Amino acid sequence: MYESRAEAPLPFARFALRMLAHGGGVGALVALSLAIGMAGYVLFEHLSWLDAFLNAAMLLGGMGPVHNPATSAGKLFAGLYALYCGLVVIVATGAFLVPVLHRAIHLFHWRTDHAK
Questions:
Q1: What pTM did the predictor assign?
Q2: I need a surface site. Which of 23, 29, 36, 112 has the fewest CB within 10 A?
Q3: What is the Cα–Cα distance from 53 to 73, expressed in whole angstroms?
Q4: Helix, strand, coil: what percent of the chain each, to 5?
Q5: Is residue 9 part of a domain?
Q6: Helix, strand or coil for residue 56?
């Protein structure tokens, strides 16, 4: 997927496209996670879609819920969704930073005597 040590670093335009692709993947993950959270709050807590969006977005953003769950099913969902959101933040950050870190390490280690 990425260039090897023997290959020259990507030109900036292709690197920007790589960043857009990673950003699109992260955006899709966040959108899917937000949809899962909204559906769970509507299903288990009987919140309106707008309130479900607010709660899911706040949890996904690391701020915590606005509405405290009232039902047992809602409490279980909120706890599991909060754990899931923590993992999504870690995965999304890593997936978005991988091209930047790879490029930095590649520029540091790339040897011009390998260039053709």
A1: 0.85
A2: 112
A3: 18
A4: 75, 0, 25
A5: no
A6: helix
CB contact at 8 A, 66 and 58: yes
- 39 inside domain: yes
**Residue 100's closest CA among 39, 7, 22, 38?**
22
Q: How many independent structural domains does the chain possess?
A: 1
Is the distance from CB of 56 to CB of 74 less than 8 angstroms?
no
In a domain? residue 43: yes
- Any idea which of 3-7, 21-25, 88-92, 108-112 has the lowest mean pLDDT? 108-112
In a domain, 3, yes or no: no
Count other Cβ atoms within 10 Å, centred on residue 109. 8
Residues 62-97: tens digit of each pLDDT: 898 899 999 999 999 999 999 999 999 999 999 999
Q: Which of 96, 42, 100 has the alpha carbon at shortest distance from 69? A: 42
The CATH number assigned to the domain holding 58 equals 1.10.287.70
Structural domain boundaries enclosing 55: 27-111
